[in-house]
């Protein structure tokens, strides 16, 4: 195989599309241990809630692989990589040779050590199969405990509420969505979820999952309260799925270490997506950024490089668009700075659940939170990405209709007249 | 504060079955008539501010708007009519000179409409302009008393001439009074049509220099924007003595309209009032005028015709004779209906005389004195259409200036509030958000369309009279007959009553 | 590719482009009145006029060569047609997560929450020869549909 791609999700698909843009011919094999045509991971909660039908789960058209001439191996796991021989061995016993390899193996759920994980009714929330498992016995669940009030945990909570299951979310931090919201915004979001019946236990965690027979019957919290429930979803985060790489001797840190061209320490092995440690332009260091846009963009850029068209990956930063029960929020970058080099600007309208916060550093925008009023937030993201000096229009950043009209003329005209590559 | 006695002049009618609440009217009305009322979820109108400029009516995508004259009646009185009472009210509440814009709207007799053109029948057949060549090219400037031709060649050189592809020019509309967009529209159209535009007393904006070959540069009593480069840039120079809308008064441009561009072009400080003195302080006699004319000719090395523009006033014929004798190549006469960006209402409405009478008497006088060939005659002040042009030529004009007709072409709806600087059509304003409403490309195209249309019609009318060159119509008053005029008017106009 | 460009120097800020765009993409594409008065929910324009007087100009999707929105779209609903270059959103697959709103540097994507939540954006309603409706209806020729190559093209 000229190109071997492991992982059939955003980063893997990005890689294939990137390769094909440069090299329409070179043979590509795509291997994934999930048995599905590429699907959208973020849609699993929508699927569970019944809002997205199975046929709309797919991330690309049904004829995608055919069209791009991809040799597809689904339901097959890569067991080992042999970088020196340039081969991988598969769960089927086959050995496949490659010229360039992409590791787009994504993440795996973080499962904390605790008693009771073996009971039926303990789930993670990462794969389609995870929600299919939950769906299989959904009628039997009246009360569920979700561990973790991050994006995935709350998305799961929203889906469960829709299915009329009573939800309690247990979170170690002092607020929901602590990675992407500050206290004030988090409180608004929490209230919105509480209005829909979700209960929260913050500054707390699950010590033990209790069972009766082989089934979950409740949890014991750190503060020693006991909650009855018939299912538990563990959603405290994902960690890079880097074991293959580690075992093969690739340089790994928290994730697989890659350079500006998404190459690992082996020149013909690339990594992208949730498994890799890309450059964060705001924190100015390598970080795992487990979000889909980042996964795709890294894969796509790596694809170009694998096919010989050298292209730098300029780095990314954390950003999220998400909504719960019709309350949308868009956040990016550093939203809760902890040092005096940052300045914050805030605009709120609590009657409307509106909250907007801007974080600046050295006259550059380095983070924002937009709650409820999220329109045109991408302009802010763009200013962050291009590291534009905002000094001349700083006071306008919080305008309700903030837009290109408020940006310096040269920037506006450059952006609007030409279509500049980002 | 006491209650205002002034009623809104207009009522705004909004059809609730057609209003889609798009708020286009709100964002287009610079007078802030329309506004959005959040509480009742509707557009409402402050009618007292409405000037009936039709911006909203034209832009409303569903034709939901109608502007009507306020039907409220004043007690009937044929002498103290509503208009008179309103004028008094305005002054009672404001205490100032009543200002207005555009030409007078008083029912002054329209002589053009009492004049009728001839057409050929049987003996002197008419000419079909679609089949036969038809010449309407016009040369403005002093013509020699005779020409000497030897071996088919002209011996004596002609004095400098302005060459027009049609006997029409855009009248003096100064940058400052009108927007740069309007200036550009006029300038481009004139260039495209082979006619002339006129800077007025506002100087020549940098961006308009590219159209200076088709431009008459004006020198008025304020001398705004005048320097050697300016004088030499134009195709001709015009000394502005008077203006039909406000004879005896100089131009006034309030400081608010003097922004950076106007300031640079007029060569005056930003924000200063540009007040042209009523007279030229160096002209108190025909001899003084002659000095200025020759100073300008000298400055441009006798390469450009010099025009002198005066208002049509009582002894305009004698004045014109003096102007010709002072050495002017062109005499421009602006009748009482002439337009303006701002004028005192009383002056506009009652000072000066109609262009038709002034023209006829000037032409007659110059002929009587045997000096008609020494200068061309341009008439201005209320030329509305091509038949007005043709009648003017027959009365003795060489060409016409059009001002108001040009403004209407660019979108002006004659709301007469030019002096407020809030022209919703981007014509008579310096407010940048309004100026950009007039796209000079569109303005120029519309103006060019008008000039082409009029040119066709002029040829059509000429052909009907059996004439194939405009030159043969100049001062040919036999082609005119009048209806319903007095003996004296027939005499002044030099025409016969219809039927004679 | 041909795109719509705004000429801010002659934009009157009237927002008629918004009215016509909304109509053209409504249930009654040929009737402004019906689109606004009969359709149950108010039609949404895919073009937006930015105003900061005296400046105003219309802005809509730039149909980027490397479009952030298509790359970031979590469902695969947002795609760029390789032949026409037009970026469109398959509304049947869109779940209204607003990731495109997050990444579109032009702020060109609107949220349509009138029905099933979807991202609503310019589809360059043109077959390349005809003008998109906004260009066609701009009363002051402040929008042009043209091929301008600059920068990354
Ligand atoms: C419920 C949920 C909601 C989310 N919502 C959002 C959101 O709204 N916005 C957003 O930006 N991001 C969201 N994310 C995150 C987003 O899904 C990930 O960032 C993205 O999927 C990462 O893509 P990836 O290709 O790097 O990895 P993954 O999607 O994790 O895919 C890796 C694939 O590789 C396969 N694989 C791994 N190891 C092997 C092996 N040895 N052999 C064969 N196959 C292997 C895995 O089975 C998997 O199919 C969400 C995630 C979840 C779970
Ligand atoms: S929606 Fe935005 S990011 Fe997407 S193609 Fe259009 S302008 Fe580019």
Describe the structure.
The complex is a heterotrimer of chains A (422), B (500) and C (153). Chain A has three domains: 2-108 and 239-306, 3-Layer(bba) Sandwich (FAD/NAD(P)-binding domain); 122-236, FAD/NAD(P)-binding domain (3-Layer(bba) Sandwich); 326-417, FAD/NAD-linked reductase, C-terminal dimerisation domain (Enolase-like, domain 1, 2-Layer Sandwich), CATH 3.30.390. In chain A, 23% of the residues lie in helices and 29% in strands. Chain A has helices at 10-22, 44-48, 64-67, 128-136, 151-162, 183-195, 243-248, 292-306, 377-385, 409-417; strands spanning 3-6, 28-32, 70-74, 78-82, 87-90, 95-97, 100-103, 107-109, 122-124, 143-147, 166-170, 199-201, 206-212, 215-221, 226-228, 231-234, 238-240, 256-257, 269-271, 276-280, 285-287, 319-324, 327-333, 342-349, 354-361, 364-371. In chain A, the strands form seven sheets. Chain A has a five-stranded parallel beta sheet with strand order 3-2-1-7-19. A five-stranded parallel beta sheet of chain A has the order 9-16-10-11-12, with helices on one face. The longest helix of chain A is centred in the last third of the chain and has 15 residues, at 292-306. With 500 residues, chain B is α/β, with parallel strands linked by helices. Chain B has two domains: 10-96, Alpha-Beta Plaits, CATH 3.30.70.20; 138-497, Aldolase class I (TIM Barrel, Alpha-Beta Barrel), CATH 3.20.20.70. Chain B has an eight-stranded parallel barrel with strand order 11-12-13-14-17-18-20-21, surrounded by five helices. Chain B has a three-stranded mixed beta sheet with strand order 6-22-23. In chain B, strands 1-4 form a two-stranded antiparallel ribbon. The termini of chain B are far apart. The mean pLDDT of chain B is 96. Chain C has 153 residues and is α+β, with helices and mostly antiparallel strands. Chain C has two domains: 1-60 and 127-153, Alpha-Beta Plaits, CATH 3.30.70; 65-121, Alpha-Beta Plaits (2-Layer Sandwich). Chain C has helices at residues 16-24, 32-37, 68-72, 99-103, 133-137; strands at residues 3-6, 48-52, 55-59, 78-80, 87-89, 110-112, 118-120, 143-146. In chain C, strands 1-8 form a two-stranded antiparallel sheet. Chain C has a two-stranded antiparallel sheet with strand order 2-3. Chain C has a two-stranded antiparallel ribbon with strand order 4-5. The radius of gyration of chain C is 15 Å and the shape is globular. Flavin-adenine dinucleotide (FAD) sits between chains A (6-12, 31-34, 41-42, 44-45, 77-78, 104-107, 125-126, 151-152, 155, 241, 244, 273-274, 290-293, 295, 322) and C (74, 97, 99). Iron/sulfur cluster (SF4) is lined by residues 61-64, 67-69, 87, 104, 106, 108-109, 121 of chain C.
